[in-house]
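User: I'm putting together a small comparison set for a docking exercise, and I want a reference complex before I start. The sequence is below, and the ligand is 2'-deoxycytidine-5'-monophosphate. Could you produce the 3D structure with the ligand included, as structure tokens?
Assistant: Of course. I'll restate your input first, then give the structure tokens for the complex.
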Amino acid sequence: MIPVITIDGPTASGKGTVAARVAQKLGFHYLDSGALYRLCAYKALKEEIDLADEAHLAKTAQALSPVFEGGKIFLDEEDVTDKIRAEAVGVAASKVAALPRVREALLDVQKRSRRLPGLVADGRDMGSVIFPDAPLKVFLTASAQARAQRRFNQLKEKGIVANIDTLTRDLEERDRRDMQRAVSPLAPAKDAKILDSSNLTIEETVGQVLQWYEALAD
Ligand code: DC
């Protein structure tokens, strides 16, 4: 069986960074499932598709053919690596991700990324829906304040001035939408290990995941 480590959790919990580093340490492939929803949202915004038009959005999701290359993401030959990280795209992504037919359209591409020697997959439903047989499932959390502070620092590094209270409110609103939607809501899989990274560095968090993974072999 091809091993999979799933890392799910709320927005800005650091899952992306942690998952990518765990994948690098183990020499595994890495699936950033949130990027798929972001790509779909980006295309919808660009083509002015109504964010409630489920049939149209599902078709858009089905037809996506992004290229992941050297840490960059290209969509229809456009480098969208930074563009899909914009807050507006994140908000739209959380709306399209609530549509069952969009989620269904993205099932195959996610499952196909399970390739040897192994996969680290990050998202919201990696352990609960996409890879329910994953031998290690992690649910990575952090307080809304810690997450808002991290996002604030990230934005500051890019020269973007943000307001911490607004960021906290936006995070909480997105958490609510991700947790309350009817399909694949954000929730730890029953057999997930909960990891609260509020007071941990990235290295410590990565170290804990690797330790859990190594313990499986014992
Ligand atoms: O992880 P992220 O912030 O890049 O995800 C963007 C949005 O996509 C987020 O609001 C929830 C949604 N998402 C999802 O519903 N299921 C996933 N597996 C990954 C992301």
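The chain has ten helices and eight strands. The radius of gyration is 17 Å.
User: Thanks, that's exactly what I needed.
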